[in-house]
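Progress against Task 2.4 (sequence-to-structure conversion) is shown through the following example record, which the project officer requested during the mid-term review.
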Amino acid sequence: MLNDSWPLPHAIAYGGDYNPEQWPREVWDDDVALMRQAGVNLVSVGIFSWALLEPEEGVFDFGWLDELLDLLHANGIAVDLATPSVSPPAWFFAAYPQAQVRNADGVTMGFGSRGMASHASPEYRAAIVRVADALARRYGQHPAVVLWHVHNEYGVPVGEDFSEQSVRSWRQWLQQRYGTLAALNEAWGTAFWGQWYHHWEHVVAPATTPTTINPAMKLDWARFTDDQLRECFRLERDAIRAHAPQPITTNFMAHQSWNTDLWKWAQEVDIVSDDHYLWSPDPEAHVALALSADLTRSVAGGRPWILMEHSTSAVNWQGRNIAKEPGEMQRNALTHVGRGADAIMFFQWRASRSGAEKFHSAMLPHAGPSSRVFREVTELGSQLKQLGELQDSRVRAEVAVLYDWESLWAQDLQWRPSDDLQFRERMRTFYERLWRDGVPVDFAHPGDDLSGYRLVVAPASYLLTTADAANLTSYVRTGGTLLVSCFAAAVDSHDAVHAGGFGAPLADALGVRVEEYRPLRAGSTCTVAFGEHTLEADVWTEDLVLDGAEVLGRYGSPAKGGATAGAPAITRHRAGEGTGWYVSTRLGLDALAPVLEAVYADAGIVPADHPEGVELMTRHGQNHDYVIAVNHRDEEVTVAMDGTNILTGDRLGGELRLSAGRVAVVRTVASLRVPTPDHPQLISTQ
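C-alpha cells generated for the chain above:
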C-alpha cells in the first residue's frame, strides 16, 4: 500500500531547488519548458525568499509567488513550498540586533551569509511563525503545493549560539532537565576542578575556556542545541498545520552534520528527507553515499524518503571541487533509489550567476541545455519515469549497525585517550566491510527493538547507557549475535565512567572487561593472530580481563605502550542463546574481513558473492522484487540474475551484463531467495 502522505503517488519525484527570484521573469517560461523536457515533476521553492515575501516587517508581497505557482501547476510541476526561515532579511537584523548569533569566542556573527538567527531569540521565533502562518494561509489549498519544506539543513552552518538569550534559555533547559542545582552538580561532576554551582544565574555556557571544558556540560550543550533547533522547527510546522493538509518535512544531513539527533528529528516530520554531497578527497565516496542513504532510510523507519539535495557535478565549498565523471550522477541517484529513496532532487535547477554558489553545479548548468550535464539530467529523468512501480517497495536487512548521535557527540569531545580513534572513522570502516561483503544493513539506536536482526554491529558505542546495554545483553541472550568494537560502553549519559569500569555494562553479553586502554603512538602498529590470519592493527589496544569469553585473537609483538604479546585481542562469548564478540583494537578494512567472516557464520549470514566494485541493492514490493545493480568498475561485469531490466526492457537469460560505470534496475520474476552455500547464485527464482 502506498504511503498516504507521499506527495506524488505512483511516481518517483524528480527535480530540485528552484530559485526564480534570481532571474528575470522571461526566464521562468524557458525554465518550465526545460523542466518538462528533463522530466521534472517536483521543485522546491522559496527557501531563501524571505526578503521578497516580507520586504518590511508585517508587510507581505505574494504577487510573484502567486504567478510562479500558477505557472508551475499549469505545466504539471508540483511544488515543495519552503518557509524561508534559514535566511532572515536585512531589516530583521537591523530591527533586532540581539537576535544575531554569537560564537564560542564571543564574536557576533554578522549579516551577509546564510544560516539561522539565534534559535533562542523570541523575536526570531515570532517572525518565523508569522511568515509560516502567512504562507500556509495563502497556499495551503493551492493545487500546486504537495509538500511543505521547513527551513533548510538545521544546524548548518549555525547550530551553537552563545548569545545572552541563548544562555538564558540554556539555564531554563537545565532547570527543567535536572530540577535542582544539586542534581546538576552531580550529573556534571563539578566536584572536579572546583566547578560547583550554588546559583542558577552563575551557570554559564561552554564557551571558550583556558583549557578543556567540563565534558558533561559540553555534552548537555549539544543536547540543548539540538532541542532548541527542533523547537524552532515545531513552531513553524504547527503554524503550517493549522491551515494546510500537505505533509511537512525538513532536509536532514545524515552522517554529514553534527548538531542534530536524527532519531528524534524523524519523529517530528511527516516524511524524512536528506541532503547528500560527495566528499571529493574520498576515492570511495560512493560508499559514504550508501552509508548516508541507509542511515536516512533507517531514521525513516524503513519508509520511503526524499533525497532533497545532491549535485549534478561539482560543489563549490570544498578545497578542491571535483566534477563528476560521465555516468556518475546516474550511479549516485539510482544508488539512493536502491537504498529506499522515492524522490531524487538536486541543488539546484538553474546555476546561479552571482553569489557564493555560482560555481556549484546545477541541473541546468551555465553551459546550457546543450551540455553533457543537462543531457544526463534529461536521461535520468526519463529513467526515473520508468521506475514508478518501485515506489513504496522496501529494503530489508538482517544486520543492524548501531548509530547514536549522543555517543558521537561524547566521543568527539576533548581529552579522549587517543584523538585518532574517531566515531565516524569506525562507522565508515565497519560499514564499508559490510558493504564490500554485499550484506544489506539497517542502522539502529542501541535502545531499539533489535529482535528482528540476526546480527548487530556496534562500531562506535563509546557512550552507552545501562538501559541500552541491558537491551543489547537481552538481544544476545535471546539468540542474537553482537559484534562490539573497541572503546565501547566507556561512559554513561553524563560522560562519566561506568561504575565497575570500562565496558562494565556489557560484561554479561561479552564475557570480558577492560582493565586499561593502551593506545599506540602515532604511526605505530601491532598485529593480532586470528586463526590462520595475522591481522594488522593500529591506534588502539586494550588490556582485557576474561570473564567467561574465549580468546580467538591474541596480540603479537606490539609497539611500545600497547598491550603485551599474547594478551587477548578478539574474544567470543556464548551468553544464553546468542553470542557476543569483542574486538579490542582498531582493525582496518582488510583485517576486518576474516573477523566478519567468522561472525557471519555465528549469525547465519551468507555474504553475497558478487564481483568487487559491483553494488547490488534489492527493494521488495508486493508482487515483485527489484534489484538495482551499479557497476563502479571501469570494465564490464557479468552478474547471475533473472528478470527484466526495466530501463532497457531486456529479458535476462540468467545473467546481467553491465557495462563499465552503468546501472540496471531488474524486476525479478519471483521473490528473491537468500543465497546459501548450496545455492550460491546471487539472484534466483523459485
